[in-house]
Amino acid sequence: MIKLQWMIPLLPVISALLVHLLAGRLGKRVAQLSVGMGVVTFLVALWQIVAFIASDQGPSWMGIGSSWGSVYLDPLSAIMALVVAGFSLIVHIYSVRYMAEEPGYARFFMLLDLMTASILLFVTAGDLITLLIAWHLVSVMMYFLLGQNTESLRSERYAFWTFLTYRIGDLPMVLAAVILFQAYGALDFPTLFERLMAAPETEVFGMPAAITAAGLIAISAFAKSAQFPLHTWLPYTMDGPTPVSALMHAGIVNAGGIIINRFAPAFVNADGVLHLLFVVGLMTAVIGSVLMLTQNDIKKSLGYSTMGQMGFMIMECGVGAFSLAVFHLIAHGMFKATMFLSAGDLIGDARRHDDVPQNPLYTFLVDRKTGKATRLPWMAIGLVTLIVPLAILLLAHWAVSPDFFQKQGAIVLLFFGWITGVQVLFATHRLDATNPVRMMLMILLSFALIVIGYSIIGHTFETFLYPDAAFREALYHAAGLDAVTFDVLVVLLGLIVLVGWIGSYLASREESLFGNRFADLRLTLYSLISRELYIADLYERLSQALLEGSKRINVWMRWR
Amino acid sequence: MNTLLLLLAGFFLPLFPLSMVFNWLLGRFGHPGIRVALIVVWPQIGVLLLLAAGVPLTGSAFIWWGLATAAFYAWRLLTVRELGQWAAMLATSAFALTWVMAADGARAIDLHAFVLGFALAPALLVAVTTLLERRLGAAYSGLFTGMARDMPRLAGLITVVLLAAMALPIFPGFFVMLDLLLDRHPAPVTVALLTWLLWSWAGTRLLRDTVFGPRSNRNVADLPVPQAWAFAGVIVAAVVLNLIWTGV
C-alpha cells in the first residue's frame, strides 16, 4: 500500500514530462493526456484512502534515500491527497476548453501538472527535506501559473507579489526544520514526532524547540494562507487564468491549515502559539470580511472573502479544533471552486436570457430591498432569532459529543456559530413573504440541517484524522485559557456583537447611536478601509526604499 | 587559526571589500571560458586556504563578515541589470556563505562540494550572457522583453538558470543551502535566510525584464534545438548528481 503512495506525486510529474515532450506532435490533444493522468492520480488517491481505512493498520512510512526522500500514509495525507487530486482533476477538465484559445496551451497543462505534483508531494511528504522541497515548489509553480499570460506585466506583477510573500513564508519553515532537526536529530516524521512527544521540553540554544518551531511554522502558514498582514497578494491574483484562481482559492491557499495539522505534535506543546493562531485568525477573518464588504471590484471582493475564510480556518486551529480546520478548508475549497468555475457559465446564461426573476427573494438578496414590514410579532422574532440557533447548536453538539462543554475551543466555535445563526435569522426575517411563518420554519429547518450535518460529519472527521482521544483532548487543553480570562473575553465579544447589532438595527432605520458626533471618524475609517488599510502601499514604499538604496550603493561602488 | 591566511582566503571566498577584486576580474575578462573557470576555480582556492588556516572558525569574526558580505551583495543584486555582473555578484554573495559553513568545522570534501554547488548557477548564467550578447549585442534585462513568446527555448533556459540561481528545489543550490542551514545556530541561519530571500527577489526582477513582458517583435534567432538539449543535459546531469550526493 505505501509503495503506491509514491505514485500519487509521481504521476503528475510523468504527465508534465509527457506533455512537454509530446506537445509538438499531439498539439492540443496533450490536454487529454494530462486529464487522463489526472484521472489515474485521482483513482490511486481514492484507492489509497479506501485501502487505508479498510486495513486498519495505522500510519506507514517509506523512504527511498539514505537521508531524505520519503512518503507518509496517514489519515491527513490520505484525505488531502484525495481532495487535491480531485480538485486538480476538475480544474484540468475545465481548462481543456477554457484555455483552448490562450497562447501557451501545452505549457499551461505542464505547469498545472507540476503544481498538482508539488501539492501532492507536500501532503504526502514523509520527512522534513521532502516537505521543504514541496513547500518551495508550490511557490515557484504558483508564480508561473499566475504569470501564464507572459505578455501581461500586470499578471507578472501580481504573480511576483504572491511569489515574494510565499518566499517570506518558505523561509521560517526552513528555520523550523533546522530547529526540529537540531533538537530531535531526526528528519523523518514518525521518528521526529515520536521524539517530540516524548521530550517536548527539549531546548536548542536556550530556546524551547517545540514552541519555537511551532511559532515559525505558524508564520509560514500565515504567508501561505494570506493571514493579516501577509494577505495583500491574495485579492490581486485574479489576473491569472480562472482555472488557476479556482485551484488557488480551493486548494493552494489552504496550505497553512494543512501544515499546522501536519505539525500538530509541535502545536500541542505550544499553547502560546495556539493563542497567536487564534488572534491572527480572528483579525484576518474580521479584516477580510470588512474589506470584502467595502470593495467595488467583485473579483477583489471574492479574494477578501477567501481571506476571511482562511482567517476562520486558522482561528479554528487556534482553539484546538485542528480537524475542523481541515474539514472547513475542504468545504470552502468545494464552494469556492464551484463559484470560480461556474462564473463564466452564469455570465453567459445571463447574457442569453435576461429574465431576471422579480420575486421577493431576488429583490431582497440582489436589490437589497427589504419587505415593507415584519409580518411576525417583534417579540416572537427576537426570541426565535436568539434562542433557536443556540438550542439547535447545543443539541447537535451534545448529540455527537456530550463532553463538549469541557472544551473552551468548542464553546468559542459554538459562540461564532450562534452569532452566525442569529445574523442569518435577523437578516432574513424582514424578507417580504406571503407566508412568514412557513418561511421562518423553512429557514430554521435549513439551519438545523446544516448544523446537524456539520456536527456529525465534523465529529466523524475528527475521529478519523485524530483517532487518539487523548491527543484530541490535549489539543483542546493546550488551546485553553484560564477560566477568568476566557469568561472576560466571551463577555467582551458578546458586548461587541450586541453593540454591532444595535448599530446595524439603527442604521437600517437611518438612525445612529451617536448622531453625527463621529461622522469624521467614520469617514476616515471608511477611506482607510477602502484603501485596504494602506498595507500594500506600505510594502511598496519599503521595497522602493530598498531598491533605491541598492541602486545608489551600486553606482557609488561602480558595480564592483 | 592563521589570521593572515584567512585574510588571504577573503579574496577567494569574497569578503567585502576584498570581494571587489573578484568582481573586477570577472568584469575584466570577456571570454566566457575564462569567466566560467574563474567562477569554478577561484573559490576552490579559497577553500584550500581556509583549510590551511585551520577550521573550525568557532567564534571568529570572519563568520559574521562572510554573512554580512553575502547579505550586502544580495541586496546590491536587486538593481543589477547586466547579466554578467549579476552572475558575479550572485557568486560573491553565495561564496561568502562558505565562512558560515566552516564555522563549526566541516570536512574538506564538503567545503569543496559546497562552493561547487553554488558555482553552477553563476557559471550557467555566464553562458546565457554570452548567448544573449551574440544575439542582442548586450545582455541587459529590459533590453529585450517578452522572450517567452519570441524565443521560447532561450527563455526556458534563462528561467531554469535563474531558478537555479535563486537556489530553489531541485537545483544544487537548494541542497547546498540546506546543508549550510541544518547544523547551524539560528542567528547566522536567519541572516542566510534573508540573503536567500533577496536572491529570489532579484531573480524574479530579472525574469520580469527578460522572459515576461510585451513582445519586442525583433527578428532574433532562438536557441537551436541541439544547443537547448545540450544545456538541458548539463542541467539534468548536475541535478541528478547532486541528488545522488545528497543521499537519494
Folded structure, characterized:
- The complex is a heterodimer of chains A (560) and B (248).
- Chain A is mainly alpha-helical and 560 residues long.
- Chain A is built from 23 helices and four strands.
- Chain A has helices at 2-5, 7-26, 30-55, 75-98, 105-124, 128-146, 153-184, 189-198, 209-224, 242-250, 255-262, 264-267, 271-294, 298-318, 322-352, 360-365, 378-400, 408-428, 436-465, 469-479, 483-508, 519-530, 535-556; strands at residues 60-63, 70-73, 203-204, 207-208.
- In chain A, a hairpin with a 2-residue loop joins strand 3 (203-204) and strand 4.
- Chain B has one domain (3-246).
- Chain B is built from twelve helices and no strands.
- Chain B has helices at 3-12, 19-28, 32-53, 61-77, 83-95, 98-101, 108-136, 147-150, 152-165, 172-182, 186-208, 225-246.
- At the A-B interface, helix 6, helix 7 and helix 23 of A face helix 2, helix 4, helix 10 and helix 11 of B.
What's the structural blueprint in terms of helices and strands?
The complex is a heterodimer of chains A (560) and B (248).
Chain A (H helix, E strand, L loop, with lengths): L1 H4 L1 H20 L3 H26 L4 E4 L6 E4 L1 H24 L6 H20 L3 H19 L6 H32 L4 H10 L4 E2 L2 E2 H16 L17 H9 L4 H8 L1 H4 L3 H24 L3 H21 L3 H31 L7 H6 L12 H23 L7 H21 L7 H30 L3 H11 L3 H26 L10 H12 L4 H22 L4
Antiparallel strand pairs in A: 1-2, 3-4
Helix pairs in contact in A: 2-3, 2-5, 3-4, 3-5, 4-5, 4-10, 4-15, 5-6, 6-7, 7-9, 9-11, 9-13, 10-15, 11-14, 11-15, 13-14, 14-15, 15-19, 17-18, 17-19
Chain B lengths: L2 H10 L6 H10 L3 H22 L7 H17 L5 H13 L2 H4 L6 H29 L10 H4 L1 H14 L6 H11 L3 H23 L16 H22 L2
Helix pairs in contact in B: 1-3, 2-5, 3-7, 4-5, 4-11, 5-7, 7-9, 7-10, 9-11
